[in-house]
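Box 3.1 A note on notation
Throughout this textbook, protein chains are presented in two layers. The first layer is the amino acid sequence; the second is a token string describing backbone geometry. Keep the layers aligned when reading.
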Amino acid sequence: MSTATAGSAPRTRESDPAIRRRGGLFRHRDFRLLWTGQTVSSIGSNVTTVALPLVAVAVLDATTFQVAVLTAAAWLPWLLVGLPAGAWVDRLRRRPVMILCDLVSAVLFLSVPAAALLGLLTIGQLLAVALGSGLARVFFETADQVYLPTLLGPEEVPEGNAKLQATQTASYVVCPGLAGLVAQLAGALTALLLDAVSFLVSAACLWRIRTVERRPRRPDGPSSLRREVAAGIRFVAGDPYLRVMAVYGAASNIGLVGYQAVLVVFLVRTAGLPPGLVGLLIGLASLGGIVGATIATTLARRVGTARAMLLAALGAGPPALLIPLAGPGAAALWLILGGVVVSLAVAVGNVVKGSFRQTYTPHALLGRVTVSMQLLNYGTIPLAAVLAGALGAAYGPGRAIWVMTGWLALTPLIMLTGPLRRRRDLPARPD
């Protein structure tokens, strides 16, 4: 349960509107703590995406298949427990759930260097760590989506999402290189130790938040987990806005993850770029995500939230066709141009969609609605990677990346099947 610091009374978001008047979210103490904790945790998590496979390869001499299974294990919990996790989160206060997930993740990642020091580290333990941390991530991300609207007012949620998205995108750009640098200088196990510390910092920041979170209201009448999960699915399936966004997100992820899965192989073997340059180019191509998260709220305010969603879909689609044009010399600029536009548009769409879902969905259903959409979106990630890999093996990485970006270019048509094309702004609440 949230408590105030010694000598002060508990504060709710509504009881201190002066914080917002004096300088927006930069002056919002509790949001700063949430933002700091999530930024540090995101840095650690994105270091782990490189460090954990490096430990498997460098310390345990793992096979390619074992490394692939290690990556898949981190996403598997979304398919196994994603839907019931949403129902459980809707029954509980979210901040304690997030703190517990941080602490569990810290212990899991600390266990790896500890086991290595004792000579007990195995591939089985790494798989258990990947699976356990993936499970904690399901609950943390679901609780986080529901918690932000309790910390901020409806008018502040878009700005909060934009700031969180910007720092998260920056971590995607910076952290793979940081992981490689730390692993090179101090070893891959040290990089995992950094991730464990990041989760402890996140938990400490969440612990210091003063805003009192109300206990979720229990549903009237008899209830069951299955019935509560079904209510979230029905809400998404029956709502014309969320339904289209969920289908579009799943379809676009097939193209996005698909081309990214073969991008490195394409750039090195087909485009003929030196391996040392590939990481730099991919990092530069991702910088658009930081810009997109920064301008998302301004764009939505000026052109309308519904139109911003449509523009984001268009920006994340056809411009991807520039990426397969990449080659040696000046032709490498096609990758940067296409990647910057796509990542910018994806970030804008994520901010607008996330803010809409958080303020539009009845709060008692928000956890279940969030995971219902994420299950569909994340469920396509392993499918896309396998499909792109199979196409690359059969026809070469060049043709595979053309197929994936071609698919991505067509996905904006899905957004035109719903009511967004007839509106300037998304509605504030369901009809």
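DSSP finds 16 helices and no strands in the chain. The radius of gyration is 22 Å.
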